[in-house]
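Quick one, T. Sequence first:
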Amino acid sequence: MSKILTITVPSYHTEQYMDACLPTLLNEKINDRLEILIVNDGSTDGTLEKARTYERQFPDTIRVIDKKNGGHGSTINKGIELATGKYFKVVDGDDWVNTDQLVRLVEDLQDLDVDIVITPYEDHNMDTKEIKVQDFPHQKAGVLVSYDQLLKEADRLPMMHATTFKTAILKENAIHIDEKMFYVDMEYITFPMPFLQTACYLPHRVYCYRMGTAEQSVNPANFVKNREMHRQVTYQLVNLYNQIEKEYPSATRTQILKKQLLDHEFILDTHICLYVDDAKQGRQEFLDYQKRIKELNPQLWKELSSKKVKLLSVANGLFFPLLKVYMRGKAIR
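Structure tokens:
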């Protein structure tokens, strides 16, 4: 039987999580329609050996790919390259899925032919044990709509955890994520945007996202440490916006990507500058960042409504030290 869904499992030092992740991807009802690609990204712990154990148990479902370390984007790229399923989904090696919901997803995908499918997912905070459901309440389940209609009703970009792409969209349009970088989830969900036409929402709460661990790239300390990577991703998103604005000037996808940049990415990059220990260095990084964004798209920067960012832009960053003191102890967001 041909594979309906390829799940790529990016795995870097995930040995301790694999017994919590991989069994949730397996079910006798769908194993013959499922392709699981475990992409070991140069791990030096027991990740590869653990993955091989599962491959031996489920040789018709699981395939292990061992490669040199190249970062999260490289594992997604390898998955896209090798995928044979009609649809493609990423489940990180330290996360897991609700198996019964995955079964329902695969069964529904069997009868669908759309460019993108979105589903609810769960945020699991490992510190507080809180579970928060991320859903799209205005979507009608199982109804084929245009991609722009889906975005209009969602009023936001569906994150990686919610997204299942038709594999052909990724392969035929040579979607390639930056390698040796953090924060490339945003590239994965946005790079296909120019090519998406049809969409569908399914109500299956498949993905379980592990939050609150110290090693995560979205940990505040890691945001500061890896801030240049986040900026590089933002620059890529601005370049993509420039492309989409030309091709779809009045489309919802253009407005949603603009909203993502104005309300999240630009503000986050600015706030990170305020958390740099050396205030002088942080101020210069903000000024360089502002200059770069203006070079890429001056109109976008003009449309920023954030009072903090506007204040920082006054008089060559004059108020940077004051805002740095104000932001002390506040969350980066």
